[in-house]
Design a protein that fits this description.
Layout (H helix, E strand, L loop, with lengths): L2 H13 L6 H6 L27 H19 L1 H67 L2 E5 L5 E4 L1 H7 L15 E4 L5 E8 L2 E13 L6 E9 L1 H50 L5 H31 L8 E3 L1 H18 L3 E6 L7 E3 L1 H18 L4 E9 L2 E8 L6 H6 L8 H7 L5 H11 L3 E7 L3 E9 L5 H8 L7 E5 L4 H12 L3 E5 L2 H12 L7 E5 L3 H10 L2 H4 L3 E6 L17 E4 L4 H8 L34 E4 L3 H13 L4 E4 L2 H10 L10 E5 L7 H15 L6 E5 L4 H10 L3 E4 L4 H11 L3
Parallel strand pairs: 8-10, 14-15, 14-16, 16-17, 17-18, 19-20, 19-21, 21-22, 22-23
Antiparallel strand pairs: 1-2, 1-6, 3-4, 4-5, 5-6, 7-9, 10-11, 11-13, 12-13
Helix pairs in contact: 3-4, 6-7, 6-19, 7-12, 8-9, 9-12, 15-16, 20-21
EC number: 2.7.13.3
Protein name: histidine kinase
GO molecular function: phosphorelay sensor kinase activity
């Protein structure tokens, strides 16, 4: 059959002529008789275009003969001959028609039979060619390809299979007979197969597919398998490496927890004893030595905290616990806590918060305080002239806290490294010292919160660190309305050197709805006063920096009319410069303000509701700090305190602090002695302590079990719960939560602040 080849040739001939359109190809579609690509059938069956081409001449000749016979023999005889001739012609025509019908019925059958045979041959060739192609592809990829009967006997196998099994002709055998092991894998018809070869055991990913054979109609099992030995080896090594890394991380966490406890315990003794020394009569030189010892101790505590935080972040155990907290007070407390460092270096520090920052919002106050302490403390550390300004605002429902300093600045390369672990940006940072962990931990904390910590800097012009995090759990519009009119009607003249402190003060006054003129010289002050007199908003207050007190006196001499306006005069000082004189002896000043300013104190002074030194909020930077000496009680506390502490120095320090606070203290050195004091004495003679202070880790037991036993004993006896304060070196939040669940009344981190400890005792005893 040649129709298909002729068609292909014809199509190729048509489309091989360039530049011809579709219409031109249609116009030339008539195929000439001598066209070598004609689609005329040439398969051996002659089918004439006109049947019986000699029939018409024969009929015409027969008609002439009949006419001649009739004329020659007469009409009667001629008609007889005509009848006979017609009969013969009819028989002959019928025979011809029968032969034509018979031939026409046989020709299509032969043609169709030839077509079927050719199609079957083509399909067989295509199947064979496809099978060979697939076999070649699998061999090139190193895959196994076999065909098996439903009973498992191999019908056909690829060369890869033959090479791996060592059988050149595995047909007729089963895979099991060849030593192939099948293990079920992830799904049906999916197996993990082990084949032992000359080079060792190979692992294959094996898939089976059941399909019907077109030729025979029988079902066959087609199997494809790929070598995954190397992938399995890599996966095993990766899993082993992951397991080793997890074990190393756990070991590191245990080590850090142990080191933390072992370091905090002697630190608690060092700082506690320094606190007791500070209560004795010391010379100026001795006080300096003591201050250096305390500063070094606090630096070591901070390093331990940073190491523990870094370990938690690295191990993925770090969690934030947001709650409604006042953001402005949090920022002010950190700035206030770091102010003494800044003032010791002769630089200024100040903070301002815009009106749209809400009073309460959801955030983890302890962690944000830690970030602020690290970033602001870093700015104070590297700034040697000028100062540090902290400003908070809202941008598109995001809290933005900027820390601007006038330090040495950083190059682009140093900015890239400043947030890396154990990195310090350049020689200046290295000279200043530090572990290089604070900023790295701070960035991790902000990323965990869904925010960011970034830096921009120019060498020689200072740096700006920017903290961003979402404003959650607050009404920004209501916050802005609540604060914008707090100081409405106030016009303040600020006489202070230019710097972060004066900028923060003037910005805060304007934020709260007041008017403010900030000046440095007497001349500028006179000009501002004259401008105020010429408007409907006269001066109401003058705030004078202690360094400009002499200029205020000159101003009042040159402008005596200011005295008649009854202006409220406020004296602005650092805590270090306050000399302790009563406010009425300070050149006519009406109030004090201590830098760095708190907004609440500023409002109270400018509204005339507070005089004298402002009452500071308790500073809590999430780190134990030693502060002023606890006030002695007039009489000892009743009941006494039972102290369980195995370290003699810490026991002596805590006992001394509590006794100076008026408590009677009994000390035991381990959990066995504590249990004996609480449970072994007869109930009639047992003297229950008023309060228990215990270390979490001591010989003879553990704090959790002791707490549970104590609470269970109280429930059985019907006694009220005795307050229990647990001292621990473990700063993990889970430890605190578990202790509180076990029955602790309070948990304090070592080294314990004496003031915080006595305050906690007073709270628990409701004093």
């Amino acid at each position: 059959m040649s129709d298909l080849p002729n068609l292909r040739k014809r199509i190729a001939a048509e489309f091989s002529v360039p530049g011809r359109t579709l219409g031109q190809r249609r116009a030339s579609a008539t195929i000439p008789d001598d066209d070598p690509h004609s689609l005329e059938p040439d398969d051996g069956f002659d089918v004439p275009k006109e049947r019986y081409p000699a029939l018409k001449p024969a009929l015409a000749g027969a008609g002439l003969l009949c006419s001649a016979a009739i004329l020659g023999t007469g009409i009667d005889a001629g008609f007889r001959l005509l009848s006979i001739g017609l009969a013969i012609a009819g028989v002959t025509g019928a025979a011809l028609l029968l032969r034509d019908w018979y031939r026409s019925s046989l020709a299509p059958v032969a043609v169709q039979g030839g077509i079927r045979a050719e199609k079957a041959s083509d399909k067989q060739w295509e199947r064979s060619e496809t099978s060979q192609l697939l076999s070649t592809i699998h061999d090139a990829l190193g895959d196994i390809a076999i065909i098996r009967e439903p009973g498992g006997k191999i019908v056909q196998a690829s060369s890869v299979f033959c090479r791996l099994t060592g059988w050149l002709k595995p047909e007729g055998m089963t895979c099991e007979a060849l030593g192939i092991e099948f293990e079920p894998a992830s799904g049906p018809n999916h197996y993990r197969v082990r084949i032992v070869t000359d080079t060792g055991v190979k692992i294959f990913d094996w898939h089976d597919v059941i399909a019907r054979e077109p030729a025979s109609g029988a079902f066959m099992l087609h199997s494809i398998a790929r070598d995954v030995t190397e992938e399995n080896r890599i996966a095993r090594e990766s899993e082993e490496a992951r397991r080793r890394a997890e074990n190393a991380s756990q070991a590191k966490s245990r080590l850090l927890a142990t080191v933390s406890h072992e370091i905090r315990t002697p630190l608690s003794g060092i700082l506690g004893m320094s606190h007791l020394i500070g209560q004795t009569r010391l010379t100026g030189e001795q006080k300096n030595y003591l201050a250096g010892m305390r500063q070094s101790g606090h630096a070591l505590v901070q390093l331990v905290d940073d190491l523990l935080d870094f370990s938690s972040i690295e191990a993925g155990r770090f969690q934030l616990r947001p709650a409604p907290e006042p953001l402005r007070e949090t920022i002010e407390s950190v700035v206030e806590m770091l102010s003494h460092r800044a003032h010791e270096k002769g630089i200024e520090i100040g903070a301002t918060v815009t009106a749209d920052v809400p009073g309460l919002m959801d955030f983890d106050a302890a962690r944000l305080r830690q970030v602020l302490f690290n970033v602001i403390g870093n700015a104070v550390k590297f700034t040697h002239a000028g100062g540090v300004l902290v400003s908070a605002s809202v941008e598109r429902e995001t809290i933005v806290i900027r820390i601007d300093d006038s330090g040495p600045g950083m190059s682009p390369q140093e900015q890239e490294r400043v947030f890396d672990e154990f990195e310090q940006a350049g020689g200046i940072a290295q000279r200043a010292g530090g572990s290089g962990l604070g900023l790295a931990i701070s960035r991790h904390i902000m990323e965990e919160y869904g925010g960011s910590l970034t830096v921009s800097s120019v060498p020689g012009k200072g740096s700006t660190f920017e903290i961003r995090f979402p404003a959650l759990g607050c009404d920004l519009a209501a916050a802005a309305r609540a604060r914008k009119g707090v100081l409405a009607g106030s016009r303040v003249l600020v006489m202070a050197p230019a710097g972060p402190a004066s900028r923060a003060l003037s910005a805060t006054i304007r934020t709260l709805g007041g008017l403010c003129d900030c000046v440095e010289t007497v001349e500028d002050a006179q000009a501002a006063a004259v401008r105020a007199l010429s408007t409907s908003a006269p001066l109401t207050d003058i705030i004078v920096d202690h360094r400009h007190a002499g200029q205020l006196r000159r101003l009042l001499v040159q402008m005596p009319g200011l005295e008649r306006q009854k202006l409220r005069k406020t004296y602005l000082v650092n805590p270090e410069e306050r000399n302790g004189r009563p406010i009425n002896q300070m050149d006519g000043y009406h109030a004090w303000l201590i830098r760095p300013l708190r907004e609440k104190s500023l409002v109270e002074v400018l509204r005339g509701r507070m005089k004298g030194m402002e009452v500071r909020d308790a500073i809590n930077d999430n780190r134990p700090m030693l502060r002023e000496v606890p006030i002695l009680r007039d009489r000892p506390a009743e009941g006494g305190v039972l102290l369980a502490e195995d370290d003699p120095i810490n026991a002596f320090m805590v006992r001394s602090v509590l006794e100076r606070a008026g408590h009677s203290v009994r000390v035991v050195g381990d959990f066995e002695a504590l249990a004996a004091a609480l449970f072994d004495a007869p109930a009639a003679t047992r003297s229950a302590p008023e309060l228990i202070i215990t270390d979490l880790n001591m010989p003879g037991g553990d704090g959790f079990s002791m707490l549970q036993r104590l609470r269970e004993d109280e429930r059985r006896s019907g006694q009220g719960p005795v307050p229990v304060i647990v001292l621990t070196s473990d700063s993990q939040p889970d430890t605190r939560r578990n202790l509180m669940a076990a029955g602790a009344s309070a948990v304090l981190l070592k080294p314990a602040d004496p003031k915080a400890l006595t305050a906690e005792i007073d709270r628990l005893l409701d004093r």
